[in-house]
Predict the structure.
Amino acid sequence: MELSGAELQALRRKLRFKVCHRIGFACPDVDDIVQESLARFLRAAQAGKMQNVETAGAFLNGIAQNVILEYRRRWNRDGVISDTLPEPVDKRSGHSEVFELHDAIIAGLHQLSTRDREILQAFYFDENSKDEILARMNLTDEAFRVILCRAKERFRRIYNGPLKQRAVASHN
Amino acid sequence: MSLNLISKDFHSDPVGREHVITSYLNRKLSDRDSDEFESHYFACDECYEEVRATELLIYGLGQIVVERPTANNVAIVRFARRSELTGTSLDTGALVETLRSQNETRVLIDLSNVSHIDSTGLAMLIKCYCHAVKNRGALKLLNPSAQVKRVLNLTKIDSLMPTSDDEVSAIRSFDLE
């Protein structure tokens, strides 16, 4: 089974995000874990342990999970108090990639109406259920869906702009 | 939570998918479900892009603490989400920063999203009031909750800063002065 360079880079981006999410964006060992996971993945692929290209994502995810577990075990065994595992969820502070897009993100939000922002705030930030929001804001199911999709489209464009292009360029 | 990611519904139900993505980003999914979702987005570019876009959206929503629309030359300052005006809350500083950085002399602070206020919050309101008076302006309060209203009443701050429950009449009252 052979993966193209582009396929491999796409997997690498996802892998890096997963590792950061699992062990913390500030952890200095993120790149080591990503590299080790990819190396094991490629060795397994060369040894013919992976039959199907469609399952490559799940296969790599499984390998990464093992590497992360080993990393955590090492931390515990060495008796070091981990201050990076896992970092608390702070919705106000993003990691460096997100922080660099601060202006674009804020501009994107300001293009939304105050009401749309309130609805998104309730759904994403306050984590209210859809039914609660529909009742409180006097919205139909369809209107809620439209607001959500419209906002997501805007932010998908922001992600697909500089952030994604830079990630691709940095690996070429 | 069972994701059943393999079912077709996951892609055709954007609200359900957003719920899963938000739970994942906020680390509210179990390890098993997180693992299942990660396996899915490793193979699905669309879902991975959705995860990253939602990440940006949540970050942005966390940044907007205070909103400042204007109506009839009155700056209405309101918290974008449930907030506390207390010593330990970052929202208190955000309010003062917003008021100090603006030039409007007629300011209406909407307290409808403020659930709790303590002595630090009161001191901040006084500071905002002094700033407005120094600039020959006026500062009024709108829609305080019952708890906040009681504190404002006990400390007699409501006699210093007029308080109203109706936005339209509060905005009009600036013209009457």
In short: DSSP finds nine helices and eight strands in chain B.
